[in-house]
Amino acid sequence: MSTLAYLKSFFKDKDVASVTPTSRFCVRTVCRPIDFSKDITVVEYGAGAGVFSHYLLDHMTANSQLHLFETNAILFEKLQQIDDPRTMFYDQSVEYVSELLPEHIRGHVDFIISGIPFSFLDAGVKSSILDQSYKFLRDGGEFLAYQTSGHLEEPLRETFGNVKTSWEWRNIPPMTVYESTKE
Ligand SMILES: C[S@@+](CC[C@H](N)C(=O)[O-])C[C@H]1O[C@@H](n2cnc3c(N)ncnc32)[C@H](O)[C@@H]1O
């Protein structure tokens, strides 16, 4: 059913950038660095219909928290079907993430997971989103991203000073997976 929601959204909204949800293989690869045995705070950029969100909620502890950002109205409606007290929803762009997230989690976020199409953003917006993300992560927190190409490597290295990449071909289209740590 999610694929239909993606198809409908994709033709009306270029920012959706995908005609199908991310595969379970890619979800697992992106989430591999997460230690689910601890209470964690996770922020997801571009949650879509919730394929990562469901995976995260299935694995997170009862006291963990998940903040979900999604700008497409059709996908956001589907996302909001998640009925879980650990979840907070934001239907606005992550360009304004530091104004939208609660102040008390600044510097305490364990992981940010991002699937938004960074290649559509101009350099200033891209670096603003990465800078805001850096400030919200705790020391040792990680920015995990998946993109259809390797274009995010340089901006991540500029903001975080480090980036590891891998390739997940079991997805349509194949994805470059990024991991940067706030050191
Ligand atoms: C490639 S899709 C990924 C969707 C989902 N996470 C998945 O893995 O199937 C990118 C998503 O980011 C959303 N998006 C794009 N730009 C955004 C922005 N500036 N703020 C929040 N969401 C955004 C799109 O609407 C779309 O749902």
Task: List key phrases describing it.
183 residues; alpha/beta; seven-stranded mixed beta sheet; 7 helices; binds S-adenosylmethionine
* Name of the level-1 CATH class: Alpha Beta
Cα-to-Cα separation, first versus last residue: 40 Å
- Tell me the CATH topology: Rossmann fold
Tell me about the biggest sheet? 7 strands, mixed
Structural class: alpha/beta
Q: CATH superfamily name?
A: Vaccinia Virus protein VP39
Unreliable parts: none
Our count of helices gives: 7
Domain tally = 1
Strand order of the largest sheet: 3-2-1-4-5-7-6
Q: How does the overall form come out from the CA principal axes? A: globular
User: Beta-strand level of the residues, as a percent range?
Assistant: 15-25%
The overall strand count is 7
Roughly what percent helix? 25-40%
What Rg, in angstroms, do the CA atoms define? 15 Å
Mean pLDDT over the residues? 95
Bound molecules: S-adenosylmethionine
Helix-strand string: HHEHEHEHEHEHEE
Describe this structure in a few short sentences:
The chain contains seven helices and seven strands; from the N terminus they run H-H-E-H-E-H-E-H-E-H-E-H-E-E. With 183 residues, it is an alpha/beta fold. Strand 6 and strand 7 form a beta hairpin.
